[in-house]
């Protein structure tokens, strides 16, 4: 069973809830697919047993032996990646889109294109099973493809170790990385918060999961900080026939647990939030 935990916006507590689910079972696969800002490896400190480079595309680099600093390439770059600095032509790694135009028009053949391979996929063991995560290097692209790589490795880990449950911590938003994270999963849990932006992004996220005919659930985190919007969220979910899986109260111990490199289940197993998350997880895995 693959359970993806996503959110329409950042800051809803998605990763905290993913971590909690991952520590409710003794043996799971945890896939951190938030490759632009992976952080669960900090919490769980896995033993890395596999590391694989991820080639995202190409970047332009200047061959200083050939470059005359004529600046011809600057006029053609549509990404403002090429500029003068200290009377030398330089190319910004983060702005370069890898379109290779500059290398084609350079009159001195002084620009080459190299493959970007600083991004990585890691796999190994953690205290509750197996863990796979990706880290997209700054300025590199194709995060959706890296998410797919992480998911494929997670499936291999599940099969090779006969693990029945895979928890996928997806990226926020509704873009390509999210679609890559949720495609074909058994359940999608959408974590939201009672704010105007939280409700707006929840609606957009449900539209996406509905198009893929995925079984979707909603967790309202920090539900008591704005009861009026929490009621609006519940009404919207009722009208769209989406089940509310849990309503979690605000509790600063959620943050404290992360500071201590523990999930809330490990930090305060008898807390209200832990009890609600345990019930929610059992509801999904037991099919009730």
UniProtKB/TrEMBL annotation:
A single MF term (Gene Ontology): metal ion binding
Protein's UniProt keywords contain Iron-sulfur: yes
Domain of life: Bacteria
Keywords: Iron, Iron-sulfur, Metal-binding
Gene3D superfamilies: 3.30.70.20, P-loop containing nucleotide triphosphate hydrolases
Any Pfam family: Fer4
Domain named 4Fe-4S ferredoxin-type: residues: 58-87, 88-117
Alphabetized SUPFAM superfamilies for the sequence: 4Fe-4S ferredoxins, P-loop containing nucleoside triphosphate hydrolases
Name listed for the protein in its UniProt record: MinD superfamily P-loop ATPase, contains an inserted ferredoxin domain
Organism, as annotated: Parabacteroides chartae
